[in-house]
Amino acid sequence: MTAQIIDGKSLAQKICSDLKQKISALNGNIPCLAVILVGDDEASRIYVRNKQKKAAEVGIDCHIIELSDSIGENALLETIDELNNNPEVNGIIVQLPLPQHLDTQKIIARISPDKDVDGFTPYNSGLLSSNNPDAFVSATPKGVLAMLQSINVNLCGKHAVVIGRSQIVGRPMGKLLLNHDCTVTITHSHTVDLPSITKTADIIVSACGQPQMIKSSWIKDGAIIIDVGINRTDGKLCGDIDFDDVKNKASYITPVPGGVGPMTIAMLLANTFEAFSRQKSHPQHHCCHGHDCHCSK
Ligand code: NDP
User: Fold this and answer.
1) What is the pTM (predicted TM-score) of this model?
2) Which of 59, 82, 116, 219 is the most buried (most CB within 10 A)?
């Protein structure tokens, strides 16, 4: 068997061109995404520039707020409050990782849930946990789900093994697949005998950042393999899956690059458009205290 490739790049292009059409129909009333970038981490700068470029292509106004890596926690929280309270801003993301002296959980939790287009706040994470359709779902897991839906796989009852349990990929991925009736196993660096678990998987979503760790001997015939990992070895990008080895045993596989990566940006833009649409149809005040707050701000 040679696996069919799930082409994330062209799927993302289609999602972006649909978005572009919807946004151009707004006659100049365009969504706005604010990206907070703290410090001068080179990789973060590249990611943020990519997001801004893609946002411009679909017609989303993307503002980058660049802050010094010596910024104090209170000053950063105030910046988020200002964006929360600015009715011109529809979505807010904080580019991670943050410098060590900043409490990432506290900073993220300050984003107003209705502008939390990364879906990282405890509020949206809780909505996802309770299978509430109002949740903003983190872009990478949402992109993976769209890739699975693009091949028309019936997720109901499938055994999905997620490798990795981070807040931004593994955990929300597990919840999302559970919400779609998969039987989910979430694994991590302390999992004992991982290959014996992956061998029973109908679907593997790997997000562990271990270059080419997953071999064909780890999977069963016909498994669907989604590779979230982005690793750099000898200057070249590769995923967590040993693509050349696994492709002869899997039924579907995603490439790196050109797989989940482009889908992540497309889904961030889709979430921004969704936030914009919700805010236009249900205007409410935006304060720093969250969705149901009735303070006078
Ligand atoms: P983290 O480092 O936050 O999490 C990695 C997870 O993998 C942890 O839960 C860790 O376990 C687990 N893990 C590490 N080694 C192993 C192992 N040998 N066996 C099983 N589990 C293991 O990374 P992220 O979740 O942020 O990202 C994961 C990968 O996905 C990275 O390569 C990243 O670059 C990529 N990525 C790609 C995106 C895209 O758009 N394609 C978006 C975001 C990330 P433990 O919790 O025990 O430490």
Assistant:
1) 0.95
2) 116
